[in-house]
Design brief:
Layout lengths: L7 H20 L9 H7 L6 H4 L4 H11 L21 E3 L5 E3 L14 H14 L2 H12 L12 H9 L6 H6 L1 E4 L6 H12 L2 H12 L8 H6 L4 E5 L12 E3 L4 E4 L5 H14 L11 H11 L1
Parallel strand pairs: 3-4, 4-6
Antiparallel strand pairs: 1-2, 5-6
Helix pairs in contact: 1-6, 1-7, 2-7, 4-5, 10-12
Length: 300
């Protein structure tokens, strides 16, 4: 979250984001956002530490950690490295502004004796600089569900409830798959599940996005049932040699039309081409699927 987002308009947008988060928690419709663990921790009011700053500003976190870990010299007024000789009790925030850590901080030098105080105050300032924005998101959440419920969740649980599970579990997906016009034990269906199991997580997310316009699935069997989510594999209705046809998807319904490919290698080639090279193969958007398939054949 941008700590510089302080205008009425921007804060109202963050409130709206909070309402989207709450609706995702209530309905299971995921919100595809990528936020640092720091943000989720602040939303559930979980304690944050210097290590959390590393996720949003690794250089600042490393500098503060290095200053904290310097060997202590009790006899010296200042034994800091030369590059820190002029450091005052001031820290630069994410928006580039300077923040005084204590009264008179602009004139107070950091020394070996007070460096731990500086690290503590600087860490607190950096970790709390988005409190106004966090409060706006929490206000939005609280307009839909009791905001007190957030304290019952860990930050990981909140992220999963809002965004879904980051890892695609093929076995869970398989348990919630239906088939239309094709048998689950068909040869090309077996090819399909073998392929999905061998995909890395990035390719699995690409596949889910191709079929459903989302990158995450419900986190568990219970979430699949609660949200009434199911994946459906349909027989391809396109005529011609199946090996020359690309798969298509109905993203609104999480359906995949899968041609009966004759070999595992051909299936993998066609599916990877579809999920990596084509933005969408949703028939609702009028893509010339046949044309794409013909280009693919010429390349082969």
């Amino acid at each position: 979250l941008d700590p510089g987002a302080r205008s009425t308009k921007l804060l109202s947008m963050l409130e709206f984001l909070g309402r989207l988060f709450a609706m995702a928690m209530r309905t299971g419709s995921q919100v595809p956002v990528a936020l640092a663990p720091l943000v989720w921790k602040l939303l559930v009011r979980q304690p944050v530490v210097l290590g959390d700053l590393h996720q949003v500003d690794c250089y600042a976190a490393a500098a503060l950690r290095g200053l904290r870990n310097l060997s202590k010299n009790e006899d010296a007024a200042s034994s800091l490295p030369e590059e820190l000789a002029d450091q005052k009790f001031v820290v630069t925030l994410s928006d580039g502004s300077s923040h005084q850590l204590k009264p008179g901080g602009y004139d107070l030098r950091v020394t070996d004796r007070n460096r731990n105080e500086y690290v503590r105050l600087a860490t607190r300032a950096r970790l709390s600089e988005q409190n106004t924005q966090i409060a706006a998101v929490r206000k939005g959440i609280g307009s839909i569900i009791p905001v007190q419920l957030l304290s019952l969740l860990s930050w990981e649980e909140l992220e999963v409830r809002v965004c879904g599970k980051n890892e695609i579990d093929v076995e869970i997906l398989k348990r919630h798959t239906k088939y239309s016009g094709v048998q689950p034990d068909a040869k090309h269906i077996k090819f399909f599940w073998k392929m999905l199991e061998e995909f890395n997580q990035e390719h699995r997310r690409d596949f889910v996005r191709f079929c459903w316009a989302q990158e995450r699935l419900p986190a568990s069997d219970a979430e699949f049932e609660r949200t009434k989510t199911r994946f459906q594999i349909k027989a391809s209705v396109r005529s011609g040699n199946p090996d020359s046809i690309l798969p298509t998807a109905d993203t609104c319904f999480f359906n995949l039309s899968l041609p009966a490919y004759s070999s595992y290698e051909i299936m993998k080639t066609k599916v990877l081409y579809a999920i990596e090279q084509v933005t969408t193969m949703d028939k609702d958007e009028g893509m010339d699927v046949e044309g794409v398939g013909q280009v693919d054949e010429e390349e082969e």
